[in-house]
Amino acid sequence: MKTLGYYNGKFDELDNMSIPMNDRASYFGDGVYDATYSRNYKIFALDEHIDRFFRSADFMGIKIEQTKEELADILYEMLDKMDSGDQFVYFQVTRGTAMRNHAFPDEGKSNLWITLTPRNIQDTYKKIRLVTMEDKRFLYCNIKTINLLPAVLAAQKAKEAGCDETVLHRGDRVTECAHSNVHIIKDGIFRTAPTDEYILPGIARAHLIAACKRLGVPVDETPFTVAEMMDADEVIVTSSGSLALAAYQIDGKPVGGKATPLLTMLQNEVTQEFLRETLPEIY
């Protein structure tokens, strides 16, 4: 199959799938999600993504009907049906199906959605342009909810500015991007925002921190400002679909390009990890 959807046990091509109008995703965005990529029919960092998925659901008081192992089995069962092993693997759970009411329904089970669509991760070595925007989101940014309107608006700002991503900030503090984490390198130190309520604890972020530690690069998990970002030796954006992209421009001003050997070393490390972990099975 070229695309594949799943809803509470039903599989089909995405264009053939339908969802009840009373699913609480429709009215309230009442759910959480996670996503990663597969290559050669191997899903990268799946256990970490499933763990975060269950943490997000727990924060929201949503009970996932499947166990972690059952969810992984469903994802691989779906992946095996695909024409290609290189897929964007997306899964979400909503609180359930009920008549519209802001308060939680008294009864009912959660709804599991899954979509698989052909897509490869981006070229990690591509240079990108960024634009900044005030972060006006609510204080549940550490939960990966499907309430993504602020991210939609921020992504649209980047698109209209001819940029690749939008960096969000609360006052002077840089938080994260519309759908990525953002970090800097300064004087040989990798700096990244702490995993508080202002950012989502990205899986790619965690892998880049682990790469730093393997390579002996100091890591500083404290907030940094917009001014510090603009003056950084390198500005790095991470997500499951991009691994570690370096910015060369923010708000039309040049940035980065001052620690190329260190940047390339980190990019090589996370890229090789992805390639190793998604090698095809040998029979």
How would you explain this protein's 3D organization?
With 283 residues, the chain is an alpha+beta fold. It is built from seven helices and 15 strands. Strands 7, 8, 9, 10, 11, 12, 13, 14 and 15 form a nine-stranded mixed beta sheet that branches. The longest helix has 18 residues, at 260-277. The protein is globular and about 55 Å long. It starts with a strand and ends in a 6-residue tail after the last helix.
CATH topology of the largest domain: D-amino Acid Aminotransferase, Chain A, domain 2
- Beta-strand content: 25-35%
Q: What is the β-strand count?
A: 15
Q: Roughly how many Å apart are the termini?
A: 24 Å
Instruction: Supply the helix-strand structural class.
Output: alpha+beta
Secondary structure elements and their pairing?
Elements: E1 4-7, E2 10-12, H1 24-28, E3 31-39, E4 42-43, H2 46-60, H3 68-79, E5 87-94, E6 111-118, E7 127-134, H4 149-160, E8 165-170, E9 173-177, E10 181-186, E11 189-192, H5 203-215, E12 219-220, H6 226-230, E13 234-238, E14 245-250, E15 253-254, H7 260-277
